[in-house]
Amino acid sequence: MVVKIKLDVECLKHINLFQSVTKASVKDCVMDYDRVLFIVNPGQAGLAIGKGGVNIRNLQRLIKKKIEVLEFNDDLRLFLNNIFRPVKVTDVEDVDRSDDKRVIKVSVEADPSQISPKAFVRGKIKKARPLLKKYFDVDDVTIG
Hints:
This protein has helices at 9-22, 45-49, 54-63, 76-84, 117-136; strands at residues 26-31, 35-40, 66-71, 89-95, 103-108, 140-143.
């Protein structure tokens, strides 16, 4: 699926700054009122973050917003793992719906060291929905 990405001038300025500071290639940029999410090409999250998070700290100081980095992947399950990290996605399945909406059910690994992986993932779903719609034509996500 070919995705057309439209970016406004402010996003383009942030992408140029991000790429000049990190040397990582940006696929997309999503801005909220208090944060900027950069979606970087596969294999470039470490480069973007920098040793000990130095690049992110420098960018947050320059942009004066929280910076998040998400590594893109063409594989839905791997992309979900990147979104929900550190929680591990164990299964992704399409849910049958009669209204032509694509809904996926995501199962996550229960880890005794984490308080509630399902609650953590529920909190990340709000951020995930527009990205999953844009890149994978997924309308909604449920947790199984």
